[in-house]
Amino acid sequence: MEWTKLCIVSRVIGTFRLSENTSNKDLTLINIRLFIIYNFTISIHYQKKNYMLSVSNNEIDIKENNLREQYPEVLEALLRDHTTQKNIFWATDNYQDQGEDYKYTSSILPELITGDKGSVIMPRVQKDKEMQQSRVRDMAEVFTPSWICNAQNNLIDSAWFGRENVFNTETTNPDGTHTWIVNPDKITFPEGKTWKHYVRDTRLEMTCGEAPYITSRYDTTTGEFIPIDKRIGILDRKLRVINENIDTSTEWLKATQEAYKNTYAFEWQGDSLLLAREAMLYTFIENFENKFGRQPKLESIQFLAYIISWNVWQMDGLKGVVPNSCGERKTIEQDLFGEKEIITACDGCKTDNIHKHNGIYCLIKDWSNKDLETGKKGRKIRFVDLIKK
Question: Any idea what DSSP says for residue 233?
């Protein structure tokens, strides 16, 4: 199956790897494994063409005011778009009644979501029903229950480990509801693989919404807060493995950074993207505090926010470009009779070829290779270049 076909599926979890011997000119995608499960029937239409208080109170909504006050420069990092060198933008009309700065194409600035505007962005489950319905209608925003996220993540891990029920066992309650029973034993690894291989296994969530497949701080359909030891996301599992194998904070931070560098996701809508980034950051903070009984240093939080801002980005998944950045281009040409307007259509849109769009192709980082310009670890690459022509 072609990548562009997979992008229209409501929920897809994928894994991809970059070759360790990738040349400077040619980045090769050497392995893509995708697992799709249909547990319920929905109509799919792709996108129209004080932190301690939060943790102790089990709040699912991360308050931007708290984030900005307690962790300087972190909110700014989580709003950054490294492709455009600007902030991520709303990419939804849901907030336009708030004023000119909340229109579809406007950038999300810290001052627009803090202060007396501190509750503008909230998880979908806390939005009013009318807004929820409009987002389903306009952008096919369908959020997946945690038990389905768990089932799909289990499929990936069953393939990776070569056995089932590694992290938990899926079960159905007498009332028909679904849940899981956590495996209390330390995770063991198959011959030839270690916990470090698992942490470095590169995984991607497409059209991630609030990223329930990556981190399950709460059930996105019910709003129920999920304790750390019951979480089932991609990062949750990697962090569990790290927690079971490392006892010093220095080594723990190093391994956790590696886990985050190998976890990717993209999303169209700016508000959902910010919620996903925030959830990943707080997952780090909560796990560190749970493990060591204290908060991580500010510099560690800032660096994790920087990694997240690269690895979880705003993109039109069908085109590989910044949303709404491609389309017709108008130019003025002079001839014997004066000026003439020339309209050029986008080749990618005409031919449905993801490699031929005239929009702004999104950049991500390959953290395993050095950047050709700076010489530092973390090479900037176009996401579209990972997809075979």
Answer: S
Is the overall model pTM greater than 0.70, yes or no? yes
Which token pair is 297?
A: 């240093």
Residue 37 lies in a domain: yes
Residue type for 100, please? E
Q: How far apart are CA 12 and CA 7, in angstroms?
A: 8
- Distances from the Cα of 144 to the Cαs of 3, 249, 388, in angstroms? 21, 34, 29
The answer to whether position 315 is within a domain reads yes
- Residues 6 or more apart whose Cβ sits within 8 Å of residue 148: 11, 37, 39, 40, 178
Strands 263-267 and 312-314: parallel
Q: Which residues pair with 89 in a beta bridge?
A: 107
Residue at 276 is within a domain:
yes
Query: What is the sign of the dihedral through the CA atoms of 3, 4, 7 and 8?
Result: negative
Count of domains forming the chain: 1
Q: What is the pLDDT of residues 271-328, one digit of tens each?
A: 999 999 999 999 999 999 999 999 999 999 999 999 999 999 999 999 999 999 999 8
For residue 269, what are its two tokens? Answer: 């809508």
- At position 38, the amino acid (one-letter code) is Y
Q: How far is CA 153 from CA 184, 203, 206, in A?
A: 18, 11, 13
Orientation of helix 234-245 relative to helix 270-292, angle to 10°:
20
Best-predicted range by mean pLDDT among 2-11, 39-48, 51-60, 359-368?
A: 359-368
Q: Which domain holds residue 30?
A: 3-46+140-321+360-386
- List, for residues 34-68, the tens digit of each pLDDT value: 333 333 322 223 233 333 333 434 577 788 999 99
Residue 328, Cβ density class (10 Å: 0-12 exposed, 13-18 middle, ≥19 buried): exposed
